[in-house]
């Protein structure tokens, strides 16, 4: 087997390995032992101890429960189904409901041999879940509050009506049952393992005395974003309500602006550098991350302090969302938006694109096994990776609609270099055994006999710079 085929085979199964690793929920942990990271003063302590004592959840092999970690759709479905259905129903579901030539369980991204397949089988047969409109279940995605609400309400068999806002009846039912933790800040909030335990505990143990939110309360406080406009340097940022009352402090000597909360001091720092200053430091060791640039300045950001308490940690976790809203507000209509950029052209690989000042070509390969160009700078990178447009088995051309980048489902359709493109998003990155890479978004288009994948690492929210790179991409015939 050549190297390219080996890599492709590894890629096709690697996401399954990642979800298999998440099966650490099934790792044996001494019954009723305290978790090392859940102290009696933790807000979900009673709930976590309850779901452990009931055999609904187990800890990680290192003795932790990790209550503040997000929980994905596969883990959540497993836990909720085990809370309400007996072992025989779960274990026999696939055998009793299998179909001829069936190698997946209702959803193309749920294989029969996946550790979570039997739980998803029960959930689907019991009409608890339906999956996404594109037909996938996306088991590795973090689950948000409204998705969790629907699964919980359906699993526990509560009767609800319907509404134009599809999730409203499910959230209202949980509110009626006093089962919504006060830590839920928005309908779209990804829930944590601690919040999952809290909701299950309140419903199964009929706990109605603890403070609970309801639909109207969440609707009233759901994140409303407020815009910060800087007239001097002509840029804007948008902050969530959790930053209400934030202050700004400008340092004229080092030319940066701090954003923070009065009781917590500065948290986010935006630095305004000259082009020459940025050229001197961009390739060195630093913690600055590139935001954008105009004719005069390069804008970068960093954390203004370390994660030293829960409030600061929570606000720091919101920084990626905040900086993704960065926008230069002065329109330079007479100027080329790519001014100061370079052009990268590779006739061997058959494409060209514009690259910003912070990026340099880090790697070029065009051999029998690999065809790619990697661009790096400022501890970030993006790449163009080519893959064969023909099946390794039959040798027949692969239609665009049958192509999957690293086995991730299609998020939406777009265009790249004038060709139709599929867009794949990986908010949790590409996982290999116990480790996962950076989150990424990939634009994949077929041109002639190859699939071209333009991949941006670091987040699934494209920046203005990344959008310009996509727009500049051209095929060379």
Report on this structure.
The protein has 477 residues and is of the alpha+beta class. It folds into three domains: 3-221, no CATH class; 234-328, no CATH class; 342-475, Protein Transport Mog1p, Chain A (3-Layer(aba) Sandwich), CATH 3.40.1000. Helices cover 27% and strands 24% of the residues. The protein has 13 helices and 20 strands. The protein has helices at residues 3-21, 45-53, 73-84, 87-97, 117-125, 145-155, 168-176, 193-204, 215-221, 275-281, 310-317, 319-323, 464-472, and strands spanning 226-230, 235-239, 247-251, 256-261, 265-274, 289-293, 297-303, 327-328, 342-346, 351-355, 360-366, 371-377, 380-388, 410-416, 419-426, 431-432, 435-436, 440-447, 450-457, 474-475. The strands form five sheets. It has a seven-stranded antiparallel β-sheet, covered by helices on one side. Strand 16 (431-432) and strand 17 (435-436) form a beta hairpin. It is globular, with a radius of gyration of 25 Å. The chain starts with a helix and ends with a strand.
Total domains: 3
Distance between the termini: 31 Å
Strand numbers in spatial order across the main sheet: 11-12-13-19-18-15-14
Total E-strand runs: 20
Radius of gyration: 25 Å
Shape: globular
**Average pLDDT rating:** 82
Strand content: 15-25%
- Major sheet attributes: 7 strands, antiparallel
Helix content: 25-40%
Structure class? alpha+beta
- Residue stretches low in confidence (pLDDT < 50, at least 5 long) are 1-32
* Number of helices, where a helix is a run of at least 4 consecutive DSSP H or I residues: 13
